[in-house]
Specification:
This is Exonuclease SbcCD subunit D. By secondary structure, the protein is an alpha/beta fold. The protein folds into two domains: 241 residues, Purple Acid Phosphatase, chain A, domain 2; 162 residues, no CATH class. The chain has twelve helices and 15 strands. The strands form three sheets. It has a six-stranded mixed beta sheet, covered by helices on one side. A hairpin with a 2-residue loop joins strand 11 and strand 12. Helix 3 packs parallel to helix 4, helix 6 crosses helix 8 and helix 9 packs antiparallel against helix 12.
Length: 415
């Protein structure tokens, strides 16, 4: 027996951080989550998979119209035509209280109700799936504790949307620990909610497969689903299958050899070309992270428009579908920095005194956190702004210092 375990499809998630930069190809990027799910359905039909499990967050939120639902119906109908049953639950993004519109799913689909945990036996496959949907976005209770007992003589699967014991970057929903899950006596736990692939236990397997398609730079790397092979009533193999259409990646580039912004083109180009090869034909969205003690530090941090244009030019040359999603300047001045003159040296000293003063830093952090609190949570996540912290504050202050010095220095000052 082979089944697919997928989670967190987030159909029609906007990929806004990339879409806004993609011009006439925006529609292709907007459809990335749909195309990833089409890849799953293609694989299930081609490989004659026995059934498909989806562990919540099928949709990213309430539908703007019935188009999102109709897309899912088309794909589920393709699975129905191939005789492949589907079981799914709702998570925090597509809880019953969140999705206002409704469509009737094809007959091959079993959606677990939210009122209590229940059991569905997969027709003709000797498997029992136990699950429960979210009624509302916030589910603070441990749902797993009330899941039904394992059914004797069947392969038992728990289908659950949960934060488990907690994960950075993910809100707490239906919390539970590993012992809560193992106590049910199931043969496999198909979890959802955490967007990075994570195997919590090997025997029996307790798995987060990750989401099908990364939605922003904080969800980098290959994304997809897991094919579970069962022999003799036990899991024998877990196969990770990648179907992401847009691959997000962070590229760290050493800028220590760069005297000017132009000198950075060569190392950036080499890093981008290697990333293009690793992406295997996918659209590549890149966050560049520039590091090292660089003579060009002041220009890199102080002239972001020129830096962005140069990096975009290099990206165009690296491949048709390579996008610079953002640039982080984490360089620092070399130890032997050129003289700036008495006035600029005084300004530099003042800036660094502010950086080293705990009270001043605390005031700055309070102001910045207050501003971030006004930004909608999805926008904060896409921009990597969920929190500042000491390390991020150091980078922001260093960039501000370089920006000021770059623009205050005379035209003939060293760059």
């Amino acid at each position: 027996m082979r089944f697919i375990h997928a989670a967190d499809l987030h159909l029609d998630s906007p990929l806004a951080g990339l879409r806004d930069r993609s011009g006439d190809r925006a529609e292709r990027l907007v459809g990335a989550t749909r195309r990833a799910f089409e890849g799953l359905v293609d694989h299930a039909i081609r490989e004659r998979i026995d059934f498909v499990l989806i562990a919540g967050d099928v949709f990213d939120g309430n539908w703007a119209d019935h188009g999102s639902g109709l897309f899912l119906v088309r794909q589920l109908s393709r699975l129905a035509g191939a005789g492949i049953p589907v079981a799914m639950i709702r998570g925090n993004h597509d809880a019953e209280s969140v999705i206002a519109r409704r469509l009737t799913w094809p007959a091959n689909v079993h959606e677990f109700p939210s009122r209590s945990a229940s059991t569905w036996e997969v027709p003709g496959h000797g498997a029992a799936v136990h699950g429960q949907s979210f009624a509302t976005r916030k589910v603070p209770e441990n749902l797993a504790a009330a899941y039904p007992a394992a059914r004797p003589g069947l392969f038992n699967i728990g289908l659950l949307h949960t934060s488990a014991t907690g994960h950075a970057g993910h809100d707490t929903y239906a919390p539970c620990d590993l012992q809560d899950l193992l106590a049910r006596g199931y043969d496999y736990w198909a979890l959802g909610h955490v967007h990075g692939r994570e195997l919590l236990c090997e025997d029996p397997p307790v798995l987060f497969p990750g989401n099908l398609q990364g939605r922003h730079v904080n969800e980098p790397g290959a994304k997809g689903f897991t094919v579970v092979t069962v022999e003799g009533g036990r899991v024998r193999h877990l196969e990770e299958v990648h179907v992401d259409v847009v691959r997000w990646t962070r590229l760290e580039v050493d800028a220590s050899s760069a005297d000017t912004i132009g000198d950075l083109c060569r190392p950036v180009s080499a890093a981008l070309r290697e990333a293009v090869r690793a992406a295997e034909g996918r659209t590549l969205a890149v966050r560049l992270v520039l590091t090292g003690a660089s003579p060009a530090h002041r220009a890199l941090a102080g002239d972001p428009v020129r830096l962005e244009d140069e990096c975009h030019s290099v990206a165009i040359q690296a491949g048709e579908d390579v996008w610079i999603e953002g640039i982080e300047v984490r360089t620092r001045p070399p130890s032997a920095a050129p003289g700036l003159g008495e006035g600029f040296s005084d300004l530099l000293r003042l800036l660094r005194e502010v950086q080293d003063d705990p009270a001043e830093r605390a005031d700055l952090l309070r102001v910045l956190e207050g501003g971030l609190a006004k930004v909608p949570p999805p926008a904060r996540a896409e921009g990597g702004l969920d929190g500042i912290g000491a390390d991020r504050l150091d980078r922001l202050l260093a960039e501000a210092e370089a920006l000021l010095l770059h623009h205050l220095a005379s035209e003939d000052a060293p760059a």
